[in-house]
Amino acid sequence: MIKALLLIFEPFASWERIWRARRGVAFVLFLYLLPTLVLICAVEGYGLHHWGRARELGPRRLYTRGEAMIFEAVQFILYPAVVFIAAKLIKSVGETFHGRHTFRQTFVLVAYGLSPLFLLHLLNAVKDISPWLTWTIGIILSIAVLYQGVPRMMEPDPPHAFGLYLMSSLLLLFITGLVRFVTAWYLQGKFHSVDAFVTSLAGQLHLPL
Question: Is there a contact between 67 and 145 (Cβ–Cβ < 8 Å)?
Fold first, then answer.
């Protein structure tokens, strides 16, 4: 989370340090991304269990530990998938701008570029805060951070830099927005069959309420 704050307030210097470190995909995945997601899921799961979620129709929903664990486990799988998919797509987009970028470059860019979004995700544990509010602020900050990150990490030709930045930002906006849509609608109780399945599965875990 410290890295996210540094990227927000000192983007140029932070991206320069990331670029000089030359970390590989495995290092960033196992020593940065996954530990970050563990923290996020643990905090949000705590909030779901202790304060629940207000719904548009019906009473506030309090989640059992099993239900919260299943929901957070799904998110823990979804977000690395988002990073891998976005990295692959941005690499493909870069090739349309006549760039020869490696998957390592785009993976590191996306993993660190989404740090502000992950940081704001922690606020989802706060009682009654809208998940759309945290996503909106988080993705705006991430797009701002990418403004320095794309040219430093991908090193495109100057005439193509802004176009690559714009396309990368739109891809991340769309992919993370789709994930936010699905998870927010689930928490609002709009996926009744999924809700019932999660409740049934959680009951089989035999965890304390």
Answer: no
- pLDDT tens digits, residue range 120-145? 999 999 888 999 999 999 999 999 99
Confirm if 25 and 104 have CB atoms less than 8 A apart: yes
User: What is the rounded distance in angstroms from the CA atom of residue 15 to the CA atom of residue 148?
Assistant: 7
Alpha-helical segments (H) within 97-157:
103-113, 115-121, 131-154
| Per-residue burial over 109-136, b = 16 or more CB atoms within 10 Å of its CB, e = otherwise | bbbbbbbbbbbbbbbbbeeeeebeebbe
Q: pLDDT (tens digit, 9 = 90+) per residue, 49-79?
A: 999 888 776 788 889 999 999 999 999 999 9
pTM > 0.90: yes or no? yes
* Interaxial angle between packed helices 2-9 and 131-154, expressed in degrees from 0 to 180 and rounded to the nearest 10: 70
Give dist(CA 120, CA 1) in Å, integer.
Answer: 10
- The H or E element spanning position 2 is helix 2-9
| Secondary structure (3-state) at 193 | helix
The residues with which 53 forms a beta bridge, in sequence order, are 61
Which DSSP category does 125 fall into? G
Distance CA 73, CA 38 (A): 9
In contact, 67 and 198? CB cutoff 8 Å: yes
